[in-house]
Every structure is written in C-alpha cells, then in structure tokens.
Amino acid sequence: MFEIQSRPRAGGCYAWRMTTQVRTLRAAEWDGWYATLERAFGGAAESPEERGLYRDLTEVDRSFGVWDGSEVVGTAGAFTFWMAVPGGALLPAAGVTMVSVQSTHRRRGLLTEMMRHQLTDVRRRAEPLAVLTASEPVIYGRFGYGVATRQAQLRVETKRVALTLPDGTDDVRLRIVPPAEAVAACERVYARLVAGRPGMLARQPGWERLPVLDPPGDRAGTGELLCVLAEVAGEVRGYARYAVKAEWGDGGPDGTVQLRDIEALDPVVRAALWRYLLSVDLTSTLVSHNRPVDEPLLHMVSDVRRCGVRLREGLFLRPVEVGAALAGRTYAAPVDVVLDVRDAFCPWNEGRWRLSGDAKGASCERTTDRPDLALSVRELGAAYLGDTRLSALAAAGRVRELRPGALAEASEAFGSDVAPWLPHGF
Ligand SMILES: CC(=O)SCCNC(=O)CCNC(=O)[C@H](O)C(C)(C)COP(=O)(O)OP(=O)(O)OC[C@H]1O[C@@H](n2cnc3c(N)ncnc32)[C@H](O)[C@@H]1OP(=O)(O)O
C-alpha cells in the first residue's frame, strides 16, 4: 500500500489536492471496484453473464485500486497467462486488464502510479512479459508497451468470391453442435495450435467460457451462437463459431454471418469450414473482427478486394525483464548483437545487453561491449513476437544502427514466419 499526493498539472481541470492510496483489492470490494471500471467505459452495464465470468476470472491478489477516502477512483489488474513466443516456448506473461481512472480524478497521474505499482509486482513474480489490449493506442507507449501483433478485420462479400479448395475438402464432415457441448472438442484443437503461433495464450482454467459466452441480451438482433465441428475419420480437427443476423434488402435476403472464431489443424479442414461459412443460406456478407494478418482465406479467394480487409493493432507487449524475455525465444537466423536499451519507466532494464541466438536457443546477458543498436524497450516490445520489423522501426527513426550490418542481422533474426496473433481480448 502507498500514498499519492497530487494536484493537477497544467491543463488539469480540478483544483483540490488529494491524498489517494493504492492497495490490493479485497474480494468483498469487487462489485464497487468493477462498477468504477464500468463507469469509466461509459457506464453501460455488462450482461450478468459477462460480469459473472469476469468476476470468476478476476485474480483478486493481482487486482488493485486507488482509493480516495472510501471511494474507489482507479482500477487495474492482471491475469496470469502463458504466451507462445517464437520457437514455441510458453513464457509467463501478465495480462494487464481492467484499467480505469474515474473521470473526477483523471490526468493527475493515477494511471502512471498504477502502472508503476503493477510492473514492480510483475517483476517480483518473475514474469518477463506484460501484455495488454488497449482501449486507445495512445495510452501505453509511455509505459514501454509496443504494438506486437496486428489483426485483420474482414467484411467478405460472400456472393462475389469463389474459393480455390484443396483436394480432400469434400471428405470433411461438418456437424452443428450446441457450443457448450462442443467446448471440450474445440479446446483440444485450440491447445494443439497455441505453440505454433506467437501471441497465442495457453488457455487457463475458466477462459474456455469466453468464446462461448452468448448472453441473449447482447445479441442485438443476431441469432444464437452456433458451433460447427469439422471431423475427419471421426476426429474433430477444426471448428467455427458464429451467429447469423437475418436481414432483408430490396433484392431479397441479405443476412450476415458474424464469425467469432475458426480454427483448423490442416488446410483441408480449414477449407471445408470457410466454404461452409461463405455459403450459409440467406446471407451475403461474412464479418470477422479478428483474424491473423496471414489468414489463409485471403489466399483462397478469387477476389481479395471483396474481403474488405482492414488492419488494426492487436496485442501490446512490454518486456519487463529484458534479459529473460529475449533469452526466452528463439531467432529465425543467427544473431549476435549488443543492444543499448533505454527504459526510463523500468530502469532495471536500462543499458547494454548482448543477445546471441539462433533457431535453437538464445542467451541475453549484461555487457560493457560497444553497442550495435540503440532502441527503447517499446521498440523491443514491438519487435519481440516477430511482427514489427526492426528495420521498419529504424526507417521511422525509432531504432539507431551503430554498427553497419547489425540492423539487417537483428531484423531478420527477430522475424517470425507465422504472423503473431492474439485470437481474443481479455
Ligand atoms: C488494458 C486496459 O484495460 S485498456 C483500458 C484503459 N481505460 C480506459 O480507456 C477507460 C477510460 N479512461 C480512463 O479511465 C483514463 O483516462 C485512463 C486510465 C486512460 C488515464 O488515466 P489518468 O489517471 O488520467 O492518466 P495519467 O494522469 O496517469 O496520465 C499519464 C499521461 O498519459 C496521458 N494520457 C492518459 N490517458 C490518455 C488518453 N486517453 N489519451 C491521451 N493521453 C493520455 C496523460 O495526458 C499523461 O501525459 P503527461 O505525462 O504527458 O502529462
């Protein structure tokens, strides 16, 4: 527990001095604490089902708040995750979440204090990474978070694309099953995919409820969630979960398939699922808010312009312990560079690190050798999973090459053949 004495900085709206206290949440305080969070997001109460899920998933000992007297005016928490990194290892990662500051207390430094408190705790827990998805991208760069994954949003005009299908697509059997009954089968497929895609999270107990959450009050005119299982020789090898919004235009049926998720263990199963989703009767559009940027569908369609692809940032990542984070992944090409890292917010990371590694493993140790590249921890976070290239950051002036050749070497080594991706929010 600690106290913050604060008054508004230039441009602040409120004149009083305040003494606030940051401390760990007590389980009995959850309702009031969560209501503060909901208010900061506009006050629309979540459905009882969603609220109940997040109540169950809250790790109380990792959740904390800022109290001004008896009033909660700030919230933040973290989930204990294991995240796939390049090479297939799963590293401990703090999933930062539920961040808010009440509007009466905004822009007085409370978020900054909560972030400091949290990153100190993450370090104490020996988690090398902190990750989050942001309500606004502008918030977290100052705390050392970089954009580590992107996600593709699709709006496919399903009547205007044809698919090229691999041999064997017709051998896949599709079955519609109530989503709740199919959870175990879907989770077995999901678990087999995690290590192969950086950014995916090994499912922790309780999180399997999230992809099948379907509160009737949140459907907004859409039908119930459906699950289609894809089987080959009796084995479930893929699935898709979606709902249909039936709509009628002047020209007839004009419904939309709202895709929640699709996962497959091989191309044939994937093709069968996509063919199914793109040909649901009485629909002409398929919408997905979150697909990887290397989504195979984009290589199966006859006309990619009809897929309405838009990109946005996905996961933000911050190396909390630079040495452990960089040593915890493998590298696409041999690399031996000295990184001069700036990290004003977590000064224990500041300084020079020698990173040596290849596709088999890596080490990252303190050094006094001459630096080859200079960058801040935010750029390291952006490049860490292999999506953002160090060379692109250098072109933007955010990475400086101090030894000729070091940038190309490190940029190639940090890359990932599979696009890093976070399939769901948290
Ligand atoms: C992982 C998640 O949970 S994401 C969810 C984040 N929460 C929300 O979006 C809910 C609505 N917003 C809020 O609750 C608050 O505005 C917060 C949490 C975003 C910011 O809290 P504050 O206590 O006002 O932030 P704080 O005073 O510490 O600001 C630190 C710096 O960040 C800047 N900043 C903070 N939020 C924003 C923002 N939304 N846009 C632009 N700049 C911002 C401040 O101006 C300040 O800059 P300075 O150091 O140059 O003066």
UniProtKB/TrEMBL annotation:
InterPro entries membership: Acetyltransf_17, Acetyltransferase_Eis, Acyl_CoA_acyltransferase, Eis_dom, GNAT_dom, NAcTrfase_Eis, SCP2_sterol-bd_dom_sf
Organism: Streptomyces olivaceiscleroticus
Binding site for acetyl-CoA: 99-101, 107-112, 135-136
Keywords annotated in UniProt: Acyltransferase, Transferase
Protein name: GNAT family N-acetyltransferase
Keyword Acyltransferase carried by entry: yes
Family, similarity comment: Belongs to the acetyltransferase Eis family.
Pfam families assigned: Acetyltransf_17 (PF17668), Acetyltransf_9 (PF13527), SCP2_2 (PF13530)
Record's subunit section: Homohexamer; trimer of dimers.
Recorded superkingdom: Bacteria
Stretches assigned to the N-acetyltransferase domain: 20-166
Active site residues per record: 140, 426
